[in-house]
Amino acid sequence: MRLRGVGRRYGLGGPWVLRGVDLDVPPGSLTRVQGHNGSGKSTLLRLLAGIDAPSAGRITGRPRTAYVPERFPAELPFSALGYLTHLGRIHGLSRAMAARGAGEWLERFGADGYAATPLAELSKGTSQKVAVAQALLAAPGLLVLDEAWTGLDQAARGVLDTAVTERAADGGAVVFVDHDPRRLAGVPARVLRVADTRLEPVDHAPASPAGPRVRVEAEAPPGAGAALPTDLPGAPVHDSDTVATGRRVVRLSVAAPYSDALLRALLTARPPWHIRAVTTIGGPQERAEAPQAPREQPAEGLPRPVEGPEGKA
Ligand SMILES: Nc1ncnc2c1ncn2[C@@H]1O[C@H](COP(=O)(O)OP(=O)(O)OP(=O)(O)O)[C@@H](O)[C@H]1O
Prior knowledge:
Elements: E1 2-9, E2 16-24, E3 30-34, H1 41-49, E4 56-60, E5 65-68, H2 80-90, H3 95-108, H4 124-136, E6 142-146, H5 154-169, E7 173-177, E8 190-195, E9 198-201, E10 213-219, E11 237-244, E12 247-255, H6 259-267, E13 274-281
Parallel strand pairs: 3-7, 3-8, 5-6, 6-7
Antiparallel strand pairs: 1-2, 1-4, 8-9, 10-12, 10-13, 11-12
Helix pairs in contact: 2-3, 2-4
């Protein structure tokens, strides 16, 4: 998706909130937008989500988009499950798939006990879980999150962190605003700031090494010159590159949420790479068994990505 010369002002002759915004949002990218209160972050996100139109400039190439607004309209006449199923149908899922996906997301967020509760009777936090689930339900090409973590309990915030990084690793673009600067630390993200009507890049420290990472040891396919596939998900760090018994063996490490996507990319490369070992490393909660017992990971035993609804529109 591309924004060229995009501007927005409210009302005829009102002050420009955004002006001359040029932005590319490529598939698989994760973008954080920051700025002072009232600087125009939500305005930008509404333009990205397509629920508001620019006063100037053009936006082209928007993929199927889902949006979590700052405020969720809870007065709709649906139960939580009914609402999610309805939205899944709108996104093109069959009734059965929409209902299954809706149930799975409610369960993932620990809200399955409220499936039959009318939206208007949900607590603020549970209603936020439904707001987030509706956006994740149909695996959108662009996910726009405006302070979507606010109001979620700690467990649900973690679920959303994982879901967001999975979406980006699977090729979806994600743009988010969150007041917590540590949100998704450790996951490679571009940071932009809205200031004085402009959108500008922010120099920020490289991704924190604090989060858990996964090391993948992969063996090149037979034959000379097997190059590592380009554009591997999660921007993996190339830890080592050796030749053992005539085969090139590389060790890559990546932020944990990207590990499934990285494995898939290696296994489905042409020709495919052979996965020798997958080990969880680093992070404050380093798995005790990891250093002693790297887990052999045969191709057919690939861990499935965390369950989401199947079938895209
Ligand atoms: N619908 C609207 N009508 C008129 N003015 C608006 C509207 N929406 C936003 N504005 C104005 O546009 C400016 C930017 O608002 P916006 O909500 O985009 O900022 P923000 O950076 O998201 O703020 P916050 O951090 O407080 O959520 C503000 O001056 C706001 O008053």
